[in-house]
Design goal:
Shape: globular
Low-confidence stretches: none
Largest sheet: 6 strands, antiparallel
Mean pLDDT: 92
Number of helices: 6
Helix content: 10-25%
Distance between the termini: 35 Å
Order of helices and strands: HEEEEEHEEHEHEHEHE
Structural class: alpha/beta
Strand content: 25-35%
Length: about 260
């Protein structure tokens, strides 16, 4: 059978690399950011992900995809992993991995759900739960670039979580970041005194933060499949052009 040739650049992305855990930090009680040193990492764009492969001593192997949380110009690669209680991989990554442990990964993967530094239009980010991870990479990339170049196009973030304790990157999102507006939405439990009752994302929630269609903003929506489809439908109903709405979704994978 003839094999299709791949370019050297693609071949680099398909090659498994060995990464070393050099740091980690807890984001919420069920999520942890892994800081990895990946020799020969080819670089990435904000919004891309990697495949992670684990192999047991008996040879059994399994792999999962995780969004990259770090900005592209960092020396180290960061992945934020949310533990799935009955999962196969995420409990190990979120709780058992210790400094010096090795992982296999390949990537970066994805070329559509990315934010590129040359984009000048306003951006709306809509996150459901751990869907915040690739959007956080975009926020960080914009912030770092803005420190070098001056003011960039504004970002707005609508972040939907079950309860206040589920908010990842909270301190960073609450810190001053010129041009970034952050809005939280709670679906099951809201902070005391919060004006909006807990509940599912509504058209009114999106209308309050969305850029007008005339702004020709780009919208990125990431989260569970049901959340993403619901949000995208609402955005189209508000007059947003479908081709300016980019979505990334995830469903049950065995964790």
């Amino acid at each position: 059978m003839a094999r299709a040739a791949v370019s050297g650049r693609l071949g680099e992305r398909l090659r498994w690399r060995v990464a070393t855990l050099v740091g980690q930090r807890e984001e919420t009680p069920t999520t942890r950011t892994l800081v990895l040193d990946v020799p020969g990492w080819p670089g990435h764009l904000a919004g891309q992900h990697v495949d992670v492969r684990l192999t047991a001593e008996d040879g059994y192997s399994t792999q999962r995809s995780y969004s990259i949380a770090s900005a592209p110009d960092g020396a180290l690669l960061e992945l934020t992993v949310q533990q799935v209680s009955d999962g196969e991989v995420s409990p190990y990554l979120a709780h058992d991995l210790i400094a010096g442990d090795l992982l296999e990964l390949r990537g970066p993967v994805g070329g559509w759900f990315v934010w590129r530094p040359e984009q000048t239009e306003p951006v709306l980010l809509v996150a459901g739960g751990s869907g915040i991870v690739p959007l956080m990479a975009m926020i960080r990339a914009r912030r770092q670039l803005q420190m070098q170049l001056g003011p960039l196009a504004p970002f707005r973030l609508l972040y939907s979580v079950r309860s206040p304790g589920d908010r990842m990157y909270l301190a960073e999102l609450q810190a001053p970041d010129p041009g970034l507006d952050v809005h939280f939405l709670y679906t099951r439990q809201a902070p005391q005194g919060w004006a909006r009752p807990p509940g599912r994302l509504t058209e009114a929630d999106l209308a309050a933060v969305a850029w007008p269609p005339s702004a020709q903003a780009t919208t990125y929506v990431c989260g569970p499949t049901g959340f993403v489809e619901h949000a995208a439908d609402l955005l189209v109903g508000l007059g947003q052009a479908p081709d300016r709405i980019r979505t990334e979704r995830f469903g049950p994978t065995g964790g």
